[in-house]
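Notebook entry, structure prediction.
Reason for the run: the old model in the group folder had no record of what sequence produced it. Starting over properly, with the input documented here first.
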Amino acid sequence: MLALVPAAGTSADSAALSAAAAEWTAVRAGGREVELVFVPVTAAAPEVSWPVVAEAYGATLLGTRVDAQPAGHRGGAVLFFTGLSGAGKSTIAARVVELLVEEGRGVTLLDGDEVRNHLSAGLGFSRADRDTNVERIGWVAARIAKHGGIAVCAPIAPYASVRETVRGEVEAQAGPGSFVLVHVATSLADCEQRDRKGLYARARRGEIPSFTGISDPYEVPVDAEVTVETRGRSVDECARQVLAHLR
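New structure, fully documented this time:
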């Protein structure tokens, strides 16, 4: 009987690894002779598809074993904020990050404006470009969550279809329930009243085409895990409402 065992790097002489593998395979083998085959797992190829490897060795896959996560381990997640420009997404997201850091969690902030300037530089504001921008954010966030981190994303993400695409990508990588859609539900009137950058005023004058909420639609989520009403509430209150969903 062959037992295929992942081994870091190219060395296959780890006594601890051999002992653990032998202990498990002896039980599975029911007294049969077991031959351990160490499969190198490197940075260039960090994942192994065991059915494919078994086929390469001419073996029948009887089962796989994944060691339990260490005590205290918490899985990754994506907190995906959506809402109108000026709704408070970035401000609340930044406070969420601060609170998570205080708890010792590994967290990465993917803010809409910063992603636009770096990851999505060169994209415009057509529907196709907006979708591409959100998909790129989702792709990065999914990989962060897959490896146990928390990604906090704060784009406008106005279209329901691409939000659903990102949800699927994240949950395919990090598991069901790892995607948390947070709708910062500040009204258009309140966003226009705040309008610290003067963007809504310019959009009303026709100076900014395809502006979400004015000349381009914002599709209000019907599937948000968390809906945050900001009127009359502090940033800290809003952030803690979001974090309560992770508890």
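Summary: Residues 125 and 220 are 19 Å apart (CA to CA).
The old model has been moved to the deprecated folder.
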